[in-house]
């Protein structure tokens, strides 16, 4: 990408995205009240019923994206999307559904056993093949994990090329919850890397993964080359089976499923070929659509650092309309806190950069992602098709679902144990008497569940910032998750403290400012699993 040259202007002014910004701080900083009013105005627009829940691919989301782009322009950010002068990156998405019911059979002992759709088996609709006719031998492969950092390889000694792997859901007991969540999300890629064409997950301790997981549509990004975000090349299907069928998969094998389950859950049982096979025919219908991410840039001032970037981002999309609402019931998933508030505070952080009169040394990229609610698809697409060189991204801070319903005293930086971004968050918080607390909900594996994760997977030190439990936050968070999260009640009737949203915006501005001005790029910590996995060649630092 060619950066627009910053030309000195008369009277000591610098031009940033067409706006004249003083080289020295202006007359006075904006008041907290003014910040709070602007954030409230942004949230009220983005969470209004007329935007109908801002789902990716809908008119409401398009309106929201236009609004954010207009705010970027008024703030003075340069367009940083795809194409000259564009603030947008249109993410190509595909929705796949079954065209009819798949015909699936288990081949065992020379007999064909038809499996009942929805009761015995379900199959993920294909995003790469509209018609599939597959017969595949089965191989049991433990938990289906191959990880050089942990020195695990459940495929060692197994020939799974062109076959389907049957694996236990989850991971061996005792792993860090974030590591376990990451490994669980990568099993399809691990199976494909070993040469498998299909994967079937079964339960470790009885019971199997929900059959309902593959009854609905599959949605992912699909680029012009046919690459699909979550479908690794070579893997042709993912299937779920009932526990009864899971046991039958081991018919005639050297060991029964029951005897394997009786072993220790802390280790992966050794794999072996099964004596059964899966045979099926399935047809898919596709709906292709696009949805825009909105991207603006504040160019850096330091000739030696301006080509590097700090990302400040939050997702703009939400959940659309409740189709099964009864007459007179609220139908709109407004997403006021998830994540209109995150986008609004990102906009306010951008205003703070410009109003400071001091351009950061590194460039700062502001991104309102799309399709997060569909599985981090917009952020993953940007990370695969970045609008700036990915190697130039020094750090990323994700603003997702702040809950300014109380006077918070601390924040939680998910991902902080893995990189020096944690030190920056702590230093910025100290200037505002805001502490940094450890993850209060490690069992939720939040680090792998928001838009910073696709950046981290590609080696970028990244964190997600939540308001913490200090100041009475725990009961507020508990109530929010119980009654409003992904519900129509996440709307503007909540008792939002706009001054606390302004504090959250100011903190994120200070974090991003420090990241942009620090002569040293953030580093992964030595011994961090994610640093060793995602960025093995990058220099590391001691904790």
Q: Which key terms come to mind for this protein?
A:
single chain; 543 residues; alpha/beta; Aminopeptidase; Glucose Oxidase, domain 1; 2 domains; 17-stranded mixed beta sheet; two-stranded antiparallel ribbon; 13 helices; 26% helix; globular; disordered N terminus
Biggest sheet features: 17 strands, mixed
The quaternary organization reads as single chain
CATH class (first level) name of the largest domain: Alpha Beta
Q: Give the low-confidence spans.
A: 1-28
Distance between the termini: 35 Å
CATH topology title of the largest domain: Aminopeptidase
How would you sum up the global shape?
globular
Beta-sheet strand percentage? 15-25%
In the CATH hierarchy, the architecture of the largest domain is: 3-Layer(aba) Sandwich
Q: What share of the residues lie within helices? A: 25-40%
Number of domains in the coordinates? 2
Q: Which structural class is indicated by helix and strand composition? A: alpha/beta
Task: Supply the CATH superfamily name of the largest domain.
Answer: Zn peptidases
Using the CA coordinates, give the radius of gyration. Answer: 25 Å
Number of strands: 23
- The total of helices stands at 13
Q: For the residues shown, what is the average pLDDT? A: 92
């Amino acid at each position: 990408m060619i950066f627009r040259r910053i030309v000195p202007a008369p009277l000591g002014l610098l031009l940033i995205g067409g706006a004249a910004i003083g080289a020295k701080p202006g007359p006075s900083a904006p008041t907290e009240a003014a910040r709070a009013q602007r954030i409230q105005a942004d949230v009220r627009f983005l969470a209004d019923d007329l935007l109908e829940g801002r789902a990716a691919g809908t008119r409401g989301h398009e309106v929201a994206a236009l609004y954010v782009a207009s705010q970027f322009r008024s703030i003075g950010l340069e367009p940083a999307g795809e194409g000259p002068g564009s603030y947008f990156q249109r993410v190509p998405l595909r929705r796949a559904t079954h065209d009819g019911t798949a015909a699936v059979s288990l081949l065992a002992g020379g007999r064909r056993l038809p499996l009942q759709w929805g009761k015995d088996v379900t199959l993920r609709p294909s995003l790469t093949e509209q018609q599939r006719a597959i017969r595949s031998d089965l191989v049991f492969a433990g938990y289906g994990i191959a990880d050089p950092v942990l020195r695990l390889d459940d495929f060692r000694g197994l020939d799974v090329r062109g076959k389907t792997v049957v694996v236990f859901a989850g991971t061996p007991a005792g792993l860090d919850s974030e590591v376990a969540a990451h490994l669980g999300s990568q099993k399809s890629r691990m199976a494909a890397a070993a040469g498998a064409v299909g994967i079937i997950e079964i339960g470790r301790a009885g019971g199997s993964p929900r059959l309902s997981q593959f009854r609905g549509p599959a949605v992912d990004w699909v680029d012009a080359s046919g690459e699909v975000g979550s479908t690794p090349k070579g893997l042709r299907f993912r299937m779920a089976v009932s526990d009864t069928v899971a046991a039958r998969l081991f018919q005639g094998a050297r060991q029964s499923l029951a005897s394997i389950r009786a072993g220790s859950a802390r280790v992966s049982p050794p794999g072996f070929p099964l004596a059964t096979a899966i045979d099926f025919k399935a047809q898919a219908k596709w709906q292709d659509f696009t949805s825009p991410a909105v991207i603006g840039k504040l160019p850096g001032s330091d000739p030696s650092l301006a080509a590097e970037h700090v990302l400040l981002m939050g997702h703009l999309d939400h959940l659309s309309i409740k189709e099964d609402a009864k007459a007179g019931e609220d139908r709109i998933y407004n997403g006021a806190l998830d994540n209109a508030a995150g986008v609004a505070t990102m906009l306010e952080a951008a205003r703070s950069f410009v109003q400071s009169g001091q351009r950061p040394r590194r460039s700062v990229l502001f991104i309102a992602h799309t399709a997060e609610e569909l599985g981090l698809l917009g952020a993953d697409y940007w990370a695969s098709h970045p609008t700036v060189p990915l190697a130039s991204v020094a750090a990323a801070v994700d603003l997702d679902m702040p809950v300014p319903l109380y006077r918070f005293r601390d924040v939680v930086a998910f991902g902080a144990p893995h990189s020096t971004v944690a030190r920056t968050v702590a230093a910025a918080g100290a200037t505002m008497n805001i502490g940094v607390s450890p993850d209060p909900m490690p069992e939720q594996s939040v680090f792998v569940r928001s838009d910073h994760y696709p950046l981290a997977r590609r080696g970028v030190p990244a964190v997600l910032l939540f308001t913490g439990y200090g100041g009475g936050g725990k009961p507020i968070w508990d109530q929010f998750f119980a009654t409003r999260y992904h519900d129509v009640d996440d709307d503007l009737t909540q008792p939002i403290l706009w001054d606390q949203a302004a504090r959250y915006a100011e903190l994120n501005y200070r974090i991003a400012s420090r990241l942009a001005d620090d002569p040293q790029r953030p580093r992964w910590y030595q011994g961090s699993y994610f640093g060793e996995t995602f960025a093995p060649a990058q220099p590391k630092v001691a904790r």
